[in-house]
Amino acid sequence: MLDQTPSRGRHSARVSPSISHRAPARRRLGIPMSVALTAVTAALLLAVAVLYGAPADTRQPAAAAGVSQSLEEAGKSSSWKERRAERVKERRARIEARAAARAEARESASATPSPAGPVAEAAPEPAAQAPAPVAPAQQGSTAASTVRPAGQSGLPYGAGSFFRSRVTGAPVDAARTSQFRAFMASHPDQAGIDWPKINLNPDWAMSYHVGTANDPVWRLAGGNTSDPRLAVLRTQGFHMADSVADSFPNGDQDRPGVMVDTVFGYTVQFADAVPNKATRTITVSNAGIMWHGSNGLDGRNPASDDERNFTSRGRIPDAMVIRRDQLDQAIANGTGLGHVLHLFFVETNTADGVVHPMTGAEGDKAGWGAEGERIRIRPDLDLEARGLTGAALAIARTLQEHGAYIGDNSGSSTQIKASQPHHYSGTNLTTDALKGKISWADFEVIPRGWQG
After folding, report:
1. Within-domain flag for 36
2. What is the pLDDT of residue 252?
3. Is the CA virtual torsion 224, 225, 226, 230 positive or negative?
4. How many domains does the chain have?
5. Considering the domain boundaries, does residue 438 fall inside one?
6. 298 FRET partner, CA 20 to 30 A, in 6, 127, 138, 198?
7. Is residue 197 part of a domain?
C-alpha cells in the first residue's frame, strides 16, 4: 500500500476550499488515475532495476542504486567465481588424469613389449603358471628397442623378470636340497671343492662390454647367425670398443662374449669368437640375443613376451657375467648385484630335463639337477659374520638374494663366470674369494620352475 501521509501532503494544494468538507475522503482515495499509473509503473521499473540492474539513465538515488547494483553484482560475481573454480578444478582433474594415464602407459610400456619393439617391465610367472604372452614384435626386426635398460646400474629387463626376481622369500624343496648337498660332496670333480668358484681365468672367462653411442659398431658372421632372429646382429650389429677384441684368447677355448648394447637395446651373447678388426666383424659358432625391453626370457619359453629373444637353450646372457659397474654399485649400497647368476654346473642330469627359465638341456649327463633349477644361500645366514667383505660379500649377497640357476655344464667343478681379472682390479674378487666362507651345505634348492 502507498504511504497516505506523503501523498496527502504532496497533493493537498490542489484541493479546493469550497469542497474542503469532503476533502478528507477524496484525499485518501482521489488520486488521479494518471498519477496512480505513473506510480505503479515507477514501482515496477524500480523492481526490475533492482532485479536486473538499472541502466545508467534511470536516475535512481545513488545510495539505492549503489546498494541494489552491489548486491546483484556480488551475487553474480560469487556465482561466476564458483562456476569458474569448478571448471578450473575439473580441467585440472582432466589434465591430471591424462598425465596419470600417460604415466601408466609409460609404466605399462616398461612392462609389456609392443609390436614395434619390446619394452621394459613385463613379469613372467613360473612355467607351470605362465602368463599369456603379449603379441611379440616381428622376428628379425632391425629396429632398436624403444626402452633402454633401467633400474640398478642399468639392469635390463623388467623388475618382474626372472633375471631380477628375488628368492629370499622362496619356498624350499627339502628333498632336492638334501640330494644336492650329498651330490656336491661326492661327485669326483666336485668333492673337496665345497665352495662356488668364480672363473676369472683369462683363457676361459667371459669377455664383455657395455656399449654406448661412443663405441664403434661391430657385426657377427658365421655359425647360426643366418637365423632370422639373429639377422639384426649381421646387419645392424652392436656397439663394442675395439679394445675388447683383444680380450678373446687364441686357441680352442670357448672364447665366449657378452655385449650389452645400451643404444640398440639388446644384449648379444656368442661363443668361439674370432674378431677381425679390419672389418669389425666377429665370426662365431653360436650366438644369441635378448632384447632389454622384454622380460628377458627366450621366445620359446611360454612365459616369454618377445619371440625375438633367442639364445642357446634359453640362457639369459646378462646372468652369465659379473659387470664391474654393477659390482661397484653393489659394494657401495651394501647389496647384491640385483640379478640372478648363471651357474656353470659340474654335471647336470639329462633325465631331470629342463625347467623355467631354460628351454633346453644338454644330453648324456648323469649328474644332478635339471637345467634351469635354482639354488640360493639360505636367507638366515649372516654373511658378514662369515668374514665376507667387499666384492666377495656382494657376490655372496647376490647368491642369497637372487640365487643362481643351472645354465651350463662346466666340464669341471661348479663355477660362476666373471670376466678377465683386469676388470676387477682394486677389489677382493678372486677365483676362491668364497673359499672357507661359503660351502655347498649353505645352499637350498628352490622348487623347480618357481619364480616369485
Report:
1. no
2. 82
3. positive
4. 1
5. yes
6. 198
7. yes
Q: How are beta strands 443-445 and 404-409 bridged, if at all?
A: unpaired
Cβ atoms of residues 132 and 304 within 8 Å: no
Inside any domain, residue 135: no
Name every residue whose Cβ is closer than 8 Å to that of residue 96 and which is 6 or more positions away in sequence.
none
Residue partners of 19: CB distance under 8 A and separation at least 6: 26
Helix (H, G, I), strand (E, B) or coil at 260: strand
Domain extent at residue 330: 152-445
Distance CA 136, CA 115 (A): 6
Check residue 251 and give its pLDDT: 82
Q: Give average pLDDT by consecutive 10-residue segment, the chain, 452 residues.
A: 39 39 44 54 53 41 38 39 52 55 46 36 36 37 40 78 97 99 98 96 92 98 98 98 95 92 98 98 98 98 98 98 97 98 98 98 97 98 99 99 98 94 97 98 98 86
